[in-house]
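Exercise 7 asks you to align residues with tokens for two separate proteins.
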Amino acid sequence: MAVHLLSYLKEQFTPGVIDLLSRELSESPTNTLKAVNGSLPTLLGGLARRLDASGGASSIISLLAKGDYSDTPLDVSQVLDEHQQTVNTVTAGRGFLNEIFGTNLSQTTALISTYSGTKPQSVQTIMGLAGSVLMGVLGRQEQENGLTAHNLSTLLLGQATEFRTAMPAGLEDVGNLLGFNELKTPSGPQTEVQGTDNFSGTVINPNIPKSPEGDRRQENVRWLRWAMIVVAILVAALIIQKCSENQNSTDGVSTDSTARVESNAVEDTSAAAKRSVQEAHGQVSDSTAPGALGIRDSSRAPIKK
């Protein structure tokens, strides 16, 4: 069976976490727990409804694909020791909540606040923490294991009925606002609804159904990584080869290491050298001067007898 999302999020909020969170929010533990119990099924139910809407699944996957989850906590307790960590985590999850609830986010927060007796800001913090953790789990699956829009819809809609029935009594207005009456798990065998055990059931790799599209994406990523490695090796080999060649320190020209290197700046202009050139080529003047080869100045050419 696929990862049990509601249980996974509820396990984040242990009694110790509720106490820490209550002090952070200046709320009573009892009211904080009520806000948590109302926020979690609302978050998951809202996500299921968003995925079921036209284009919703693709929009969520697109958002997940753009995220950086290197600092996203796997557990709420990891960010409650310092106030700034809590704030950063809530801020990171805000975009996810906006994508899920849209213009209904403020009203949803207000309804849960009234139900639980907590401040609206406290409810926003709780939903931001839960949303950030959930986004991190799903986002890592999208980037590392090829989670697709179809996979995500299958996972959430496979547990949709449970999200609806987990809503506490007194939060019917939230259900009506978000259309939770329409949250129903599709009929059919469980393996078809939630997929088979393709991923391990750990926090880092929750058990989420895959599809052929996801397999193709993973294969493309693996192929690209190998291609980049091969290119890097070839470039390194060319650099090493270039560095190993002998070079003339004056002109920067690669030469035979057994040959004597003579700078272009040195030129033998002695009288003996000029006579040698004259005997060999019939000229000692500038080779660029006009005239026949070996006789650049026809007026000074020797007369043959």
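Second protein for Exercise 7:
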Amino acid sequence: MPNIVLIIGSAPDAIRASHWNKTTFSKIIAINNAWKVRDDWDFLIHPDDFLASKRPQVISEDQAIITANDYVPIQNTYGGFVYAGGTMAFTSAYWALGALKPDILAFIGCDMVYPTTGEATHFYGTGVADPLRDDVTLQSLEAKSTRLFYIASQQQCLCINLSIAEESRMIFPRVSIEALEQFNQDDYQRHTNNFNQMFDMAHINQAVKREQDLAFYIESGHYWKHLDTICSTELSALDNLWMNALVFDA
């Protein structure tokens, strides 16, 4: 059985994960308010400004809270927040890659698409659309998803999206929960081989080299305090390289 880590965000369909069999997953990571989706999560990951009043008041000895002290050093080993994208869906994924070394990273509730017609934006109602804020690192959520997809593949980790929403900014291939529950080592290897054929290595090599050349690296993770050293135009061009790094009809 592959080592499958589930990451739960706060999109409306996150609630689907409330009844999934935990034995499908080696670990479950809840982002911010998603700890309310089910009470048997293993890790709650949140930024420093996540209000204490929104955090669980009691956790079991088998659960752990992951904060900036934990995820910033790991994020830095993958190039830092400027290149990864400064929102928790990506931060939690890179932390999981470094700390848990999964074979599969499965996402639910991380579509980062927010309705403007008065519908619920989150499973608990209406919330702040953090990934859509005016942030130089989030000019293209699709590009940041592509980067994560590739970085994970270099660890032999598959990123998949369990969402059934019509639209998602997470570009990972869709897999149903029913199919994932039946995944074995052969399925994992077959999907690994298929997904690896999607990568356009010419664009990936250009993107990786461009990251190195730009050197937009902030060790503290507080990139918003150093915006004068980060060029949004250069980051947009870098996003374009990542956006051209996948060929879905391979």
